[in-house]
Amino acid sequence: MKKMLIILRHELLTTISRRSFLIFGVLLPIAVMLGLAFFGRMTSAAAEEEGNPPQGESLQTEGFVDHSGLVRSLPGDLPDGVLVRYATEAEAREALESGAISSYYVIPSDILSSGDFTYIRADYSPFASSSQDWTMFWTLMFNLMDGNMEAARRAWNPMNLEVTDLSAEQSLEGACTRPGPYCESNPVLRMLPLFVTVIFFAILMNGAGILMRSVSKEKQNRVMEVLLLSASPHQLLLGKIIGLGLAALLAAASWIISGYLVLGVGGSTLNIPAGFAIPSSVIFWAIAFFVLGYAVYASLMAGAGALVPNLKEISAATWVVASPLFLGYFLAIIAIEAPHGPLATAISLFPLTAPVGMVMRLTIGGVPGWQLALSASLLGLTAVLAVWLSARLFRVQELLSGQPFTPKRYFAALLGRE
């Protein structure tokens, strides 16, 4: 036990002091969450601008010439002097040249049939802002509604859409009380399950991959020979799995904390609805699936690392061992629009794809309790089996062998047929 703890401590301290861990586990979560907050801010501002005529911004004085007779009056909510009527284009051009107005519109007589009008400004540039043209759009809308302000506002924003899902597995009390495809009004919450799935997959693969590279590197530079003089192969295996697992769990915790800070403290910035909340049970189950999933893939990759004679063969071994997880990751992304359909349910119950499939569904919510229990039980049994099988490969003859890695040899050794 003491030797295993020494190995555990060494692997943990070595991993968390690496530059790659500090970047991925500390700096990247902060950067991504700040970027998410900025995206939410921009999205919220764009949605507000689409929903209602902008108000309160600094406006320049513009003119217009109406050949159609459509504009009989200006909306009462426009500031005085923002739009100035001119009888002829010559008058408008003279005002533009004198600096009395910054630009002017020419409304043709066939505006109702063509929908076209001309916008003229002296300092036109492809990069110049045209955000003030809403004043003319609003004026035309107001006059098309015969000066009825409420009717014009309704035409500008014809409906407030609220989607309510009545399927049996959903317990949502309103749109965007939970993230996922049912949240139509907030892109950040809609994309949150995808974001969580990607991060979860990356942390899981990174932690298991570090373990494989560590074993293979120590085997190649012959450090493994020294370690085997003072510790048994089983002590090496458990010490490395637990030590690197704790480091991976720290990285996961960093992402979780960053996410909670942004969703909680930055709720107003991201336009998070007041009823939105991620239950603590989701965090508990996500950590449970992370630990069990890591135990499965770290064990299998450690076993593969015991057979890899040099770092050049790491990529091939990684694809062989992690192919089920890669498949589960891509299927989870495909199934994210139907999180409780047959495909999503299948990948969340199958042990080798459950670590990513179930976490995606947990983030969205509505997973039946029996499915959680069944999936966790199957994954736990698989983790025990993976550790036991990988221990077969952590033998002195395998750790010191220089034979090349092949999928056939890996599975044969894993099943005790070599």
Topology:
Layout: H1 2-16, H2 19-51, E1 62-66, E2 83-85, H3 89-98, E3 103-107, H4 111-114, E4 118-121, H5 134-144, H6 149-156, H7 187-220, H8 223-230, H9 233-264, H10 280-307, H11 314-334, H12 342-349, H13 354-364, H14 369-393, H15 396-399, H16 407-414
Parallel strand pairs: 1-2, 1-3
Antiparallel strand pairs: 3-4
Helix pairs in contact: 1-9, 2-9, 5-6, 7-9, 7-10, 7-11, 7-13, 9-10, 10-11, 10-13, 10-14, 11-13, 12-13
Overview of this protein structure:
- With 418 residues, this protein is mainly α.
- It has 16 helices and four strands.
- It has helices spanning 2-16, 19-51, 89-98, 111-114, 134-144, 149-156, 187-220, 223-230, 233-264, 280-307, 314-334, 342-349, 354-364, 369-393, 396-399, 407-414, and strands at 62-66, 83-85, 103-107, 118-121.
- The radius of gyration is 31 Å and the shape is elongated.
- Give the H and E element order: HHEEHEHEHHHHHHHHHHHH
Using only C-alpha atoms, the radius of gyration works out to: 31 Å
Number of helices: 16
Strand order of the largest sheet: 2-1-3-4
Produce a short descriptive summary:
Helix content is 62%, strand content 4%. The protein is built from 16 helices and 4 strands.
Give descriptors for this structure.
418 residues, mainly alpha, 16 helices, elongated
